[in-house]
Amino acid sequence: MTSEDLADMALGLPGACENAHFGKRDFRVGERIFMSLPQAGRAVVKLTPGQQAMALATEPGLCAAVPGGWGARGWTSLYFDGAQADTVRGLVETAWRNVAPKAYTSSLSPTSSGQVTR
User: Do residues 16 and 10 lie in contact, with contact meaning Cβ atoms separated by under 8 Å?
Assistant: First the structure.
């Protein structure tokens, strides 16, 4: 998986758009960031602290808490290079759901596999 694959995945979510802060690409719903691409092979996604704890426990090589206060609030590094697309998609969609208005989240529903459909 490349940064462009991940960007396409993020932009395929309802209401998502690309922007930038601190010179790095980010992806938002409205003004709320759900993912950034600070460097090749690494994304940062907005999870809740509980979601982050679950991701760290189940995907230790894929996920790591961002250092400092940001990580304590759930911001999580996602090392997507070589990762399974379904796992990455699930984490990106979770981050998107954490910031998206209900009008958008109700347009997607999880399937039995955890995938989201329109």
Answer: yes
pLDDT, tens digit (0-9, with 9 covering 90-100), for 52-93: 999 999 998 999 999 999 999 999 999 999 899 999 999 999
Q: Which residue range forms the structural domain that includes residue 9?
A: 3-117
Q: In three state form, how does the secondary structure of the chain look?
A: CCHHHHHHHHHCCCCEEEEEECCEEEEEECCEEEEEEEECCEEEEECCHHHHHHHHHHCCCCEEECCHHHHHCCEEEEECCCCCHHHHHHHHHHHHHHHCCHHHHCCCEECCCCCEEC
CB count within 10 Å of CB 115 equals 13
Q: How many domains does the chain have?
A: 1
Can you give the pTM of this predicted structure?
0.87
CATH code for position 24 = 3.90.1150.30
